[in-house]
Design brief:
mainly beta; Lipocalin; ten-stranded antiparallel sheet; two-stranded antiparallel ribbon; 1 helix; 12 strands
Length: 184
């Protein structure tokens, strides 16, 4: 099934599956690395650097391929990372388009934190969602929510554009969700 885009644009090169190594470079003129290939002791520094680089507003486009239902959808909106306590409050808001349905407003909230050299992503109410090591060549995580399993792969190689690809499977779920972020 071919996914449709909210803007009618085809996916850009450098999207999911094209990363050779996760690298994030400073958006400023110094050009120094924020993240680099995995090396001993890099986890905590890379996690803190990633959170610092994420602070701000991002344009978000998401494509959803629901293989079980045989339908596609998309989301277009804005995601923001706002410093709060020892991490970032993530919120997104925009319009969700699902095949055969009236477009609807959609929102989501998470908390991103650094802990033990990893980035921890929590639900808005503080429950653990997943964590990942941003210094890995292909950072990713698994969230086991019986009977469903959620797998995410992050790609920061085309910074400041980045994406998250979710594969969700279970007895009632089978979908792929690709979220693409770029500076707002």
């Amino acid at each position: 099934m071919r996914l449709f885009s909210c803007l009618g644009a085809a996916p850009r090169p450098g999207g999911a599956g094209t990363s050779s190594a996760a690298r994030v470079e400073r958006a400023d003129a110094s050009g120094g690395d924020i993240l680099s290939k995995k090396k001993p002791g890099a986890g905590a520094d890379a996690a803190e650097a990633l959170l610092a680089a994420l602070a701000g507003a991002w344009r978000l486009r998401r494509e959803i391929d629901d293989r079980r239902a045989g339908t596609a959808g998309c989301f277009e909106g804005v995601a923001t990372f706002v410093p709060v306590g020892a991490g970032l409050a993530y919120s997104e808001a925009g319009e969700l388009h699902l095949a055969g349905q009236t477009p609807m407003r959609a929102e989501r909230r998470y908390l991103w934190r650094v802990g033990a050299g990893r980035v921890g992503v929590l639900f808005g109410d503080g429950r653990t969602f997943h964590d990942f090591d941003p210094s890995e060549a292909r950072p990713g995580a698994v969230h086991d929510c019986p009977p469903d399993v959620y797998r995410v792969a992050y790609d920061f190689s085309a910074w400041p554009r980045w994406n998250a690809v979710w594969e969700v499977r279970g007895p009632r779920k089978d979908y792929r969700m690709v979220s693409r972020y770029e500076p707002a």
